[in-house]
Amino acid sequence: MTTSTAQSAPVGYRRGDSGYRRITAALFAAGMTTFVAMYCAQAVLPSLATDFSVSPAVSALSVSATTGLLALAIIPASALSERFGRTRVMIWSALASAIIGLVLPWSPSMGVLIVLRALQGIALAGVPATAMAYLAEEVDRRHLGAAMGRYIAGTTIGGLAGRLVASFTLDLSTWRWALEVAALVALAFTVVFVRLAPASRHFSPQPVGLRTTSQALAEHLRSPALLGLFATALLLMGGFVSLYNMLGFRLSAAPFNLSDAVVGSIFLMYLSGTVSSAIAGRLADRFGRARALMTAELVMALGLVLTLPTSLPVVLIGVLLFTAGFFAAHAIASGWVGLLAREHRAEASSLYLFAYYVGSSVIGACAGIAFSAGGWTTMVGYVGVFLAVALWVAAVVARLARRTAR
């Protein structure tokens, strides 16, 4: 009886299986379409400000509206996937986002553009809210890390591709065509995802209610250590998006006067995050998560300071360090959440992502106010305050984690 049960038990996809190749390729495409759509607008912020005669803070709302509404929708989307299935929620989410993306470049006003970007954020929420649970259910535990890595790579490269595609198109045409081309790229990856994503084999629909979901969320919010990590996500992502939102304004103006294509190529710095996040994981295992997290945050702070001079090589080194430090810190903090949350880990991850995108939306939007008020120096001070608070929070989380482990 035991042998028969073991033989009939479902087995997850393993590396080398055709199913493993399909699901990881599908999730890579899902990460690409999500982040191309989410961050392509960041490359055209100066053009939006000029064309619609609005301030940098208002143009930055085209990014913040998407991430802000995504943050609000991510927990409900996660709950819907428990009831209606992982692939169904992700497919409809990606398709709805792609359709909105094709329409929004032709917005007649900044207000309409912001509203459509907000709707796109709601549509997008189903992919990040569901992707990790989908992989965890369908992939063998021994091969899950590599599968997750491919999905994260898709999100990283998608964020980079969205900015680069829009930037290079902008150098040849208008911001409208820049966003349209980015939308077509996102649609192409959506089609790849829909065609490749295997149907769920190990998913069982669960009754979803406000009470059960609220209880799971409340349990995590009562943990001071987890609250600290949620705060870390908010502070670091807010600072990261703030710098990149305003970077185009600085580099396209005197004394740099760089073209749109050259400014867009600065987003290649994202590739440093692919390397630093992998290194950070090994350093966290060897030296401890708290020490590794604070080191990554200090690297961010050093990079931020190096963006102050008017020497382009020094600024580029600063942006490189800031970017590498951010992705390293994000990798450590997000992994730490999974270790501290003994139960209901999906809800804990949703709360982390909620804080992550709230930081992107709120802090990223307010960066435009700081930049308009006092230029780059004031903007650096603005981000520096959040980094200082994040360092203090990391020290507190370290003490709480040590106390819990005793």
TrEMBL record:
<comment type="similarity">
    <text>Belongs to the major facilitator superfamily.</text>
</comment>
<keyword id="KW-0472">Membrane</keyword>
<feature type="transmembrane region" description="Helical">
    <location>
        <begin position="379"/>
        <end position="401"/>
    </location>
</feature>
<keyword id="KW-1003">Cell membrane</keyword>
<keyword id="KW-0813">Transport</keyword>
<feature type="transmembrane region" description="Helical">
    <location>
        <begin position="23"/>
        <end position="45"/>
    </location>
</feature>
<feature type="transmembrane region" description="Helical">
    <location>
        <begin position="148"/>
        <end position="165"/>
    </location>
</feature>
<feature type="transmembrane region" description="Helical">
    <location>
        <begin position="261"/>
        <end position="280"/>
    </location>
</feature>
<feature type="transmembrane region" description="Helical">
    <location>
        <begin position="225"/>
        <end position="249"/>
    </location>
</feature>
<dbReference type="InterPro" id="IPR020846">
    <property type="entry name" value="MFS_dom"/>
</dbReference>
<feature type="transmembrane region" description="Helical">
    <location>
        <begin position="89"/>
        <end position="108"/>
    </location>
</feature>
<keyword id="KW-1133">Transmembrane helix</keyword>
<dbReference type="Pfam" id="PF07690">
    <property type="entry name" value="MFS_1"/>
</dbReference>
<feature type="transmembrane region" description="Helical">
    <location>
        <begin position="292"/>
        <end position="309"/>
    </location>
</feature>
<keyword id="KW-0812">Transmembrane</keyword>
<feature type="transmembrane region" description="Helical">
    <location>
        <begin position="114"/>
        <end position="136"/>
    </location>
</feature>
<protein>
    <submittedName>
        <fullName>MFS transporter</fullName>
    </submittedName>
</protein>
<dbReference type="InterPro" id="IPR011701">
    <property type="entry name" value="MFS"/>
</dbReference>
<dbReference type="InterPro" id="IPR036259">
    <property type="entry name" value="MFS_trans_sf"/>
</dbReference>
<feature type="domain" description="Major facilitator superfamily (MFS) profile">
    <location>
        <begin position="19"/>
        <end position="406"/>
    </location>
</feature>
<feature type="transmembrane region" description="Helical">
    <location>
        <begin position="177"/>
        <end position="197"/>
    </location>
</feature>
<feature type="transmembrane region" description="Helical">
    <location>
        <begin position="351"/>
        <end position="373"/>
    </location>
</feature>
<feature type="transmembrane region" description="Helical">
    <location>
        <begin position="57"/>
        <end position="77"/>
    </location>
</feature>
<feature type="transmembrane region" description="Helical">
    <location>
        <begin position="315"/>
        <end position="339"/>
    </location>
</feature>
